[in-house]
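TICKET: design request
STATUS: open
ATTACHED STRUCTURE:
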């Protein structure tokens, strides 16, 4: 059986999209549970869910675009760790430089 590069890339893309959607759904569930727990523990009306449907859609879209950009770098470079370093290293370095006063 011969592997075709296109089929392998599509399978990896499908797996990445499933993982991305699962991560977004998981983070929404954790956020909702944490909001309820904060409301119960602190009893403050400030602990409320203020994320609109548009905010959820926008956050989901941003997460999926980031995932697709990372996937594109991985497919372009043909080396997943190299693509992660190429994509994440500038982001991490810029965040670290913002921490320095």
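STATUS: resolved
RESOLUTION: sequence designed for all positions
ATTACHED SEQUENCE:
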């Amino acid at each position: 059986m011969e592997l075709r590069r296109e089929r392998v890339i599509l399978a990896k893309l499908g797996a990445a999209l499933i993982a991305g959607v699962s991560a977004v759904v998981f983070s929404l569930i954790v956020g909702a549970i944490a909001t309820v727990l904060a409301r119960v523990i602190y009893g403050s009306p400030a602990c409320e869910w203020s994320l609109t449907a548009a905010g959820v859609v926008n956050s989901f879209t941003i997460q999926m675009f980031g995932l697709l950009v990372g996937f594109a770098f991985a497919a372009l470079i043909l080396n997943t760790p190299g693509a992660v370093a190429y994509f994440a290293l500038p982001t991490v370095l810029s965040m670290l430089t913002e921490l320095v006063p």
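CLOSING REMARK: The helical segments are 5-42, 53-77, 80-99. The CA atoms of residues 24 and 60 lie 7 Å apart.
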